[in-house]
Known about the structure:
The complex is a heterodimer. By secondary structure, chain A is α/β, with parallel strands linked by helices.
Amino acid sequence: MALLTVKNLKKNYDGSPVIRGIDFSINKGTCVALLGPNGAGKTTTLRMLSGLIRSNGGSISFEGLDDQTDIRYHIGYLPQHPVFHSWMSGKEFLVYVARLANLDKKTAAARADELLARVGIADAKNKRIGKYSGGMKQRLGIAQAMIHQPKLLMLDEPVSALDPIGRREVLNLMEELKQETTLLFSTHILNDAEEVSDELLMMHNGEIVESGPMEMVRQKHRVDKIDVAFQKDFVPDESLLTALPSVMRIESNRGIHHIFVTDTTQARDELLQLVQSEHWPLERFEVGRASLEDLFMKVVKS
Amino acid sequence: MMQFLTVFKREMLESGRNFKWIWVPLVFILLGLSDPLSTYYLPQIIESVGGLPEGASFDIPTPPPHDVLMMSLAQFSQLGVLVISLMSMGLIASERKSGVAELVLVKPVKYSTYVSAKWTATSVLVLVSLFAGLLASWYYVNLLFGDISFLHLLATWFFYGLWLLFVISISVFMNSLFKVPGLVGFMTIVLVILTSIVTTVLNHILDWSPAKLSPYIRMMLSEGNISGDLWATALITIGISIALLAAAIYTFRTKEMA
């Protein structure tokens, strides 16, 4: 069941289109990655969904809500660069936004404490936000977005600005959050999208160029190729490889040989046989799985 | 209502933490003190800086008490208005500029609530400061020049307070138009000065312009009763302030916030 349906959504800035009429829907309980290079229109899309900016056409409809209801009750939003009142403490800020979301005093304080513990900054809850590190601010940002238990949680580039440790922590947190709410997050990092999300929306130049469940998208863009790598310094005799009936061509790059084939099942047998008979020191053997990066490059370049 | 109080309380907390609740009343108290004291001690001041030349006689008449209180009001009109513009220029503009507004306005809070709560918080601070300043002036006027009744002081506070609320409303409106605090402050001051100039130039037509509050307060203090003109001017000022506030809220709604 679709929680959110977007139809023909458009946005212009100074007359030139930034979002060119996109359609998509988000199912309840899924985790959707909005993937695209910088400037694709990811942030603009999220900001329109959150009600911060107005669209120049199209519709956004939320399951079970009429036009009268304030959509903001049901969404949580973390901007790309969240800014807080730096003179407030983490807890004060959370209680403040909880009260803005119409939670009563007791619930607000309880929710704030619960979330501070959840995102792992309970120790710093009485410290001024001005003294928080980038990772702590990001986690406080996620906490403020979750404060009123929104049906849809939108995170704009939640991990892009973090160091590897902070990134790992926030990704784990997102892994947890997607158990309890629908999650939409934007990123330009393919690995993050691949790791956390079930579904993919790929944007380029204000259009959605590819979408669907992660596996399906992968399947669709599957390239028939086999990647092989050998022990260091070993150079296989390429003429033997090209001599195989199913092999079309070979591209070698940094010790990895991408062997493009007509039929993967047949090619696998032939290749393994060859490797065995020639006693080649095989280290890696991977069949036909185009990474998202290949897809990303293909989509963006076309 | 709850959201209104939430924004209002947060605003109060901020004014407390960045010491606005100390320095703004202090500025008004100093402005209120300066005229009664300097007027009273003028002969001694002249004496101590060298005095008048030999043989010159210079009689300084003691002004009536209400004139001295009006001198203090004149101080509030200049430096006081400047202080108000400076302290309120970032009221909303700086939140939008920094991006805090993004976090606040994705919560289901009405723009009208957000704007009016901020207006109210600023008004409370300014009215309390004005009262402290007037009280300081009134105390020394009574001590050094002669009686002004407390009731007249309260009336002065009420009517002059309306002028300052008008200034705050202009500032809030400018906050809705511009994102840069400096520009907001500048435009507020320009508009206040413009109101005064236009009122002076078109004196014969604009009987009830907000800038006329001061002259009518002077009349009230010297004659002892509140004129119909003062009431009418007060009503007009309240009306314009509400209109400015409504315009600010409308601008916020139609504009893209963050």
